[in-house]
Amino acid sequence: MDTMPNDILVEVTNRCNHACIFCAHRKMHIKQGEIAPELLKRILQEAYAMGIRRVGVYTTGEMFLCKEIETHIRNAKEIGFSYIYSDTNGALATKENMKR
């Protein structure tokens, strides 16, 4: 039985502003950065064409450190994703950031 996943998780940045003891992020030795808006938009378009309707913008990094987070979320909405979600450690979840 072939089943398509319900959602896709994308890492918008691998930068983090914490060093939590339970997270492997602090032990990773990789170049830090973020995904280009054009690349993520293409990935989202392809996922949407395959029937994916939910997208999670996070993984090992803190989403509020992503300079293009507003662009990524706007693109996902314009493509038609019905549910866009994320996680945060909360340190940068100010009223201004949450409103954006």
How would you sum up this structure, described in words?
By secondary structure, the chain is of the alpha/beta class. It is built from three helices and three strands; from the N terminus they run βαβαβα. The chain has helices at about 35-50, 70-80, 95-100; strands at about 5-10, 55, 85. Helix 1 runs parallel beside helix 2 (about 70-80). The chain is globular. The termini are far apart.
What is the radius of gyration computed over CA atoms, rounded to a whole number of angstroms?
14 Å
Class per helix and strand makeup: alpha/beta
As a percent range, the share of helical residues equals: 25-40%
Mean pLDDT figure: 88
> How many strands?
3
Q: Strand order across the biggest sheet?
A: 1-2-3
**Percent strand:** 5-15%
End-to-end CA span: 41 Å
How many distinct helices? 3
Oligomer: single chain
Order of helices and strands: EHEHEH
The general outline is globular
Main β-sheet description: 3 strands, parallel
Q: Regions with pLDDT < 50 over 5+ consecutive residues?
A: none
